[in-house]
């Protein structure tokens, strides 16, 4: 589901604050730069508020944020809805015992890790990131949470690149996005 289809007036302000940088980090990529969104306190607050409005009162106990930009949006959402924030990190970034989930990218393999015991059986989780492209990272995050017994209620992203069909890889899991970007 896209919030953009409901035309909340805040969405236009959010979308206009996301800078598109052509050919970054390599030729042919249209990079969605959220740092310009973060520079605008109203647009940043509107972004958080839209997610909070969606998840408040839904009995969400875990907001899992994907490194690194999920760490920007996840904690304020978690605080506002009374949930714990669980960082899902790249390998060897968390001290102590971790559980890992490998996944395949267009250009190789990667891995997400979280602390053992951070999420428990029966927790209701949302997975937060800035963007969904091919969906590989979100799938790995969901797999990691479900392996320890959490129920992943939904994935939440600021931006979706629909042409890359990441939503289709989520095996029917709901995806909530604020803005969509179509390459022209």
Automatic annotation (TrEMBL):
Substrates-to-products reaction catalysed: AMP + diphosphate = 5-phospho-alpha-D-ribose 1-diphosphate + adenine
Main location per the UniProt record: cytoplasm
Domain Phosphoribosyltransferase: 41-166
Signal sequence residues: none
Assigned keywords, A-Z: Cytoplasm, Glycosyltransferase, Purine salvage, Transferase
GO MF annotation, one: adenine phosphoribosyltransferase activity
Listed Gene3D superfamilies: 3.40.50.2020
Intracellular or extracellular location(s): Cytoplasm
GO cellular component term, pick one: cytosol
EC number: 2.4.2.7
Gene Ontology biological process: adenine salvage; AMP salvage; purine ribonucleoside salvage
Similarity section: Belongs to the purine/pyrimidine phosphoribosyltransferase family.
HAMAP family the record matches: Aden_phosphoribosyltr (MF_00004)
PANTHER family: ADENINE PHOSPHORIBOSYLTRANSFERASE, PHOSPHORIBOSYLTRANSFERASE DOMAIN-CONTAINING PROTEIN
Name listed for the protein in its UniProt record: adenine phosphoribosyltransferase
């Amino acid at each position: 589901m896209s919030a953009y289809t409901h035309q909340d007036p805040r969405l236009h302000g959010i979308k206009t604050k996301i800078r598109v940088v052509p050919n970054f980090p390599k030729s042919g990529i249209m990079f969605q730069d959220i740092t310009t969104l973060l520079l605008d306190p109203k647009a940043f607050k509107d972004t958080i508020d839209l997610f909070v409005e969606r998840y408040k009162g839904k009995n969400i106990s875990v907001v899992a944020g994907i490194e690194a930009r999920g760490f920007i949006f996840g904690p304020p959402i978690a605080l506002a809805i009374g949930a714990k924030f669980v960082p899902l990190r790249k390998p060897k970034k968390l001290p102590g015992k971790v559980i890992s989930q490998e996944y395949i990218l267009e250009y190789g393999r990667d891995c997400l890790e979280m602390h053992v015991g951070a999420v428990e059986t029966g927790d209701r989780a949302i997975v937060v990131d800035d963007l969904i492209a091919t969906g590989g990272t979100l799938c790995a995050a969901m797999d990691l949470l479900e392996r320890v017994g959490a129920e992943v209620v939904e994935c939440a992203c600021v931006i979706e690149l629909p042409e890359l069909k990441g939503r289709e890889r989520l095996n029917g899991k709901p995806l909530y996005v604020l803005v969509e970007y179509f390459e022209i």
